[in-house]
Amino acid sequence: MAIWDGIIFSAVGAVTGWQAGSVMKSGGLGLVGNIFTGVIGGVIGGYLFMLLAIAAGGLIGSIATASLGALVLMGVVGLCKKI
């Protein structure tokens, strides 16, 4: 992985983590927490898109995939906190 790929990967993770935190009203998790949430969300979103046979390419597709996954991740964490 080239250094620019890592920077873009982290930036997409931070943006999608922040966006998911805003939508789910959890207030965000700070820069590192947002990156972590976005990266794990990207993995979850990629798996969900694969199961649903949805293809999303390019930067916008990566953001959409990671956003969906981050929202699912925050929803599950929110449910677990209530238990």
Structure keywords:
83 residues; mainly alpha; 3 helices
Helix content: over 70%
C-alpha geometry: globular
Strand percent estimate? under 5%
The ordered H/E elements are HHH
Number of domains: 1
Quaternary structure of the protein? single chain
What does this entry look like structurally?
- The protein is mainly alpha-helical and 83 residues long.
- It has one domain.
- It is 82% helix and 0% strand.
- It contains 3 helices and no strands.
- The protein has helices spanning 3-23, 30-51, 58-82.
- The relative contact order is 0.18.
Structure summarized in a few sentences:
This protein is mainly alpha-helical and 83 residues long.
Layout of secondary structure:
Elements: H1 3-23, H2 30-51, H3 58-82
Helix pairs in contact: 1-2, 1-3, 2-3
